[in-house]
Design brief:
Distance between the termini: 82 Å
Order of helices and strands: HHHHHHHHEEEEHEHHEHEHEHH
Number of strands: 8
CATH class of the largest domain: Alpha Beta
Strand order of the largest sheet: 5-6-8-7
CATH topology of the largest domain: Muramoyl-pentapeptide Carboxypeptidase, domain 2
Radius of gyration: 31 Å
Helix content: 40-55%
CATH architecture of the largest domain: 2-Layer Sandwich
Oligomer: single chain
Structural class: alpha+beta
Number of helices: 15
Shape: flat
Number of domains: 2
Bound molecules: zinc ion
Length: 356
């Protein structure tokens, strides 16, 4: 018995020693990590000899405090865009990892913005992939008006012109037959534009869509039928003349401001692209589609390449009230992304299609 107890004691002591060794080792690991951090920090908080020489060459050594390290200045002196007039800006603006960083500073400085304003704009927005320097001032103005919005949304919405009234600064769409063409209250197609390859829809030959969209529509409608839902397209491609008479009639009925909330001006209707269709459920008489139909559309449309173009709670992005009946063809991949990300096509376009 006694021997067993001693054995146990020895075992406990051994375990204790192992634990202590492990603790010491762990501490030293953390400690060493701190050391490396310190060394790295030291490396980046002073100018290298090379940088100091460069400053000499550029004749700015007497203009800057070489003891106070600025990564922005250290980057600027090696940039082709270096501008001696803006040395104080470089010295005082927080560094942002972006290839165009120095160009951005020059641009905003030339625009007359103060150092702190530039610092704020660039550190807040310039890391977003859709950042546009030309819109930089508008980002901060829009943020002031909409403090609740996330910074990424500020960038996207300003890029979409949503800080301006509808139908101002409108742009003609260049690639009008593109499957991703964005038509909205700021982007229009020519009055004379007619898409190629328009074909009648399989269950309503009075209306047409671009062939690829008409084929997808057929798949979509047949899949709904299997789940007991009947859809018939009531409007698909609409030419600008037709849109004009529609819009004019709404204006004379409700006035321009009201009509603009639910109808597009001629040239600004997505229906002119031939990729959109308005659905109708003939078994449902109150509206075009029932709420159950809409739930099915929300869950399934993307599988056939369609998106809900004007979803609920998005009027301030799409410019239109919710339209549960209007779907737009964009192809299966993009439709799935828009569905999964739960964003509007307008946002998707600015974030992933448009080049910035
Ligand atoms: Zn529609």
């Amino acid at each position: 018995m006694k021997r067993k107890k001693t054995k146990l004691k020895v075992k406990n002591i051994l375990i204790l020693i192992i634990v202590i060794v492990l603790i010491i080792k762990g501490c030293s690991l953390i400690f060493n990590k701190d050391e490396t951090k310190k060394v790295n920090k030291k490396d980046t908080t002073t100018y290298s000899k090379e940088s100091l020489n460069k400053m000499n060459e550029l004749n700015i050594k007497n203009k800057v405090d070489t003891k106070k390290y600025s990564k922005t200045l250290d980057t600027a002196i090696y940039s082709d865009e270096f501008n001696i007039d803006f040395v104080t800006y470089y010295e005082n603006i927080k560094y942002v990892d972006n290839d165009n960083f120095i160009i951005y500073i020059n641009n905003l400085a030339k625009d007359g913005l103060a150092i702190n304003e530039i610092d704020e704009i660039l550190s807040s927005y310039s890391s977003y992939s859709n950042f546009e320097i030309g819109n930089a001032k508008r980002y901060s103005a829009f943020k002031n008006k909409n403090p609740e919005l996330k910074k990424q949304d500020i960038v996207t919405r300003v890029n979409l012109n949503l800080d301006k009234p509808y139908y101002t600064d409108t742009k003609r769409i260049e690639k009008q037959d593109d499957i991703y063409a964005l038509v909205n209250k700021y982007n229009y197609v020519d009055m004379s534009y007619v898409p190629k390859n328009l074909v009648p829809l399989f269950n309503n030959s009075n209306i047409k869509m671009v062939k690829v969209a008409a084929d997808a529509y057929e798949e979509f409608v047949k899949a709904a039928k299997e789940d007991g839902i009947t859809f018939i397209g009531t409007t698909a491609y609409r030419d600008a003349g037709w849109q004009k008479s529609l819009y004019d009639s709404y204006v004379s009925k409700d006035g321009k401001a009201k009509a603009d909330t639910y109808s597009a001006r001629p040239g600004y209707s997505e229906h002119q692209l031939g990729y959109s269709v308005d659905l109708n459920d003939p078994n449902y008489s109150e509206k075009r589609v029932s709420r159950d139909d809409y739930e099915w559309i929300k869950k399934n449309a993307y599988k056939y390449g369609f998106i809900i173009r004007y979803p609920e709670n998005s009027e301030n992005i799409t410019g239109y009230q919710e339209e549960d009946w209007h779907i737009r063809y964009v192809g299966k991949d993009v439709a799935k992304e828009i569905h999964d990300k739960k964003i509007t096509f307008d946002e998707y376009y600015d974030l992933y299609i448009k080049e910035h």
